[in-house]
Specification:
globular; 104 residues; Alpha-Beta Plaits; 2 domains; 2 helices; mainly beta; two-stranded antiparallel ribbon; disordered N terminus
Length: 104
C-alpha cells in the first residue's frame, strides 16, 4: 500500500501495515501523452506499422511508455511521431511483428 506524502509530493511505499514507510528520493513519473516532450529531432529509429500484418491486439498501445500510439475507432493504431522516442518496445512486443524499426 502506498500513501501520498502531501508535503513532498513523493510516494511513500510501505510493505505492510507493520512496516515503516520509506520516502522515495525521486518522484514517480506517471505515463502521460508526450510527457518527455517532442522527440522527433533526436530519435535514431522510428517504428513503422504494417497494417496488413496488424491483428489489432493493441499490445503496442498498452506498452508504449510515452503513450504515442493511438487507437482508432476500429482498434487499428497509429503513431504520433512528434513524441515517439524510438525505443522499440512496440516492435519488440508485437506478436505478429507488424511493427519494425527503421533508421531515420
Amino acid at each position: 500500500m502506498a500513501d501520498k506524502d502531501e508535503s513532498s509530493n513523493y510516494i511513500v511505499p510501505a510493505a505492510d501495515s507493520k512496516s515503516k514507510a520509506l520516502l522515495l528520493r525521486y518522484p514517480i513519473s506517471l505515463p502521460d501523452f508526450g510527457s518527455g516532450g517532442k522527440t522527433n529531432q533526436w530519435r535514431l529509429q522510428m517504428p513503422v506499422i504494417d497494417q496488413d500484418k496488424c491483428i489489432k491486439c493493441i499490445i503496442c498501445w498498452a506498452d508504449c511508455p510515452e503513450a504515442t500510439i493511438h487507437r482508432k475507432s476500429d482498434d487499428s493504431v497509429e503513431i504520433n511521431y512528434d513524441y515517439c522516442k524510438g525505443c522499440g518496445i512496440c516492435a519488440n512486443e508485437c506478436p505478429t511483428k507488424a511493427i519494425r524499426m527503421v533508421d531515420e
